[in-house]
């Protein structure tokens, strides 16, 4: 199994790939919905961060949301057609960056043993990071389909990592 430091690099690699998929798009392209029963690229960007924060908060340390107003909007339990108006690209970007910083800080504390039950939390953090990376790539697949299929933009190359492979068309970090 990969160590925490290697998984944090994979997390950063997945986030960088997500950025490659959307950073060159216009704000209108980021917030455009192909139809009412699908989500905009921007929703997926916020959702990726929302889930990362939710998982860190609930599995390793209770802390408040960095943007509570986004919590309901970015929750996948909210059906697509009711996901409302998206925040600005700037706000989504700041939310993603804040959550990533918090992931690094909390996982760093776990890796350094600055937590209660440090051995147990290493196991939790290892599985949690693997899940966060694979969740990021799961939504990247949909972003890729809209980017290329609906918006007509070329896709960036897959990230370069010996730990990545495609399963059912999805990039996954394979830690086994």
From TrEMBL:
Residues in DinB-like domain copies: 11-143
Highest taxon above the source species: Bacteria
Pfam families: DinB_2
InterPro entries assigned to the protein according to its UniProt record, in alphabetical order: DinB-like, DinB/YfiT-like
Protein name, per record: DinB-like domain-containing protein
Lineage of the species this protein comes from: Bacteria, Bacillati, Actinomycetota, Actinomycetes, Kitasatosporales
């Amino acid at each position: 199994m990969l160590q925490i430091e290697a998984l944090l690099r994979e997390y950063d690699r997945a986030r960088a790939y997500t950025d490659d998929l959307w950073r060159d798009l216009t704000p209108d392209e980021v917030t455009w919905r192909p139809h009412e029963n699908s989500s905009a690229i921007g929703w997926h960007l916020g959702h990726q961060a929302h889930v990362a924060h939710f998982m860190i908060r609930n599995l390793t340390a209770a802390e408040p949301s960095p943007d509570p107003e986004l919590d309901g909007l970015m929750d996948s339990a909210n059906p697509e057609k009711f996901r409302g108006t998206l925040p600005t690209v700037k706000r989504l970007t700041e939310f993603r960056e804040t959550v990533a910083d918090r992931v690094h800080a909390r996982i760093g504390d776990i890796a350094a043993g600055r937590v209660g039950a440090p051995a147990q939390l290493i196991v939790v953090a290892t599985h949690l990071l693997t899940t966060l990376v694979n969740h990021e790539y799961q939504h990247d697949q949909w972003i890729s389909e809209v980017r290329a299929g609906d918006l007509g933009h070329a896709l960036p190359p897959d990230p370069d990592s010996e730990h990545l492979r495609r399963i059912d068309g999805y990039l996954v970090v394979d830690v086994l």
